[in-house]
Structure prediction request, 162 residues.
Amino acid sequence: MDQLCIVTTGGTIDKIYFDDKSDYQIGEPQIGSILRELGVAFQFNVIPILRKDSLHISAEDRELIRATIAAQPARHVLVTHGTDTMVETANVLSSLHDKTIVLTGALSPARFRGSDAEFNVGCAVGAVQALPPGVYIAMNGRIWDPTKVRKNVAANRFEPVG
Prediction:
C-alpha cells in the first residue's frame, strides 16, 4: 500500500460529550490518534474536510468529499463518516474507479470506553489494503457493498438490504 489517505467528515466517531450541556459536538478527528496509539506500520495523512453529523451532510458536501478524494494521488483512501448517511456518500464515491475507498465510523464516540471506533478503523485499514478498487463500508466486523447494506437505526447496526 502506498501512503494511506484518510478523509474525515465528522460523525459520531469524533463526537465529544459535554455533561453540563447534555450535548454532543463534533471535535477534532480521532483517527490519527487511534492509528498512532496502535503503532501502525504504514504512513498516513489525515485530511479533515467536514465536522458534521452525517444527517447534516448535503449533496454539495458529498461532492466536496468526492472531489477531495479524486484530487489525491493515493490509491487507498479511508473515510471516517457518520453512520446515518454513510451509504449515500459511498454511492456518490462509486464514480471514482481507480481507488480503493473504505468508509467507516462508530456507533459511539471514539473517546468513550467500549466504543466500536478502534475495531471499525482496524477492520477498514485491513480492507483498504486487501480489496480491489471500489467503494466499501466497514462496520460491525463486516465489509459491505454500499448498494447492498443499510443502517438499521432501531437495532443500531448495519445489515444486508432485503
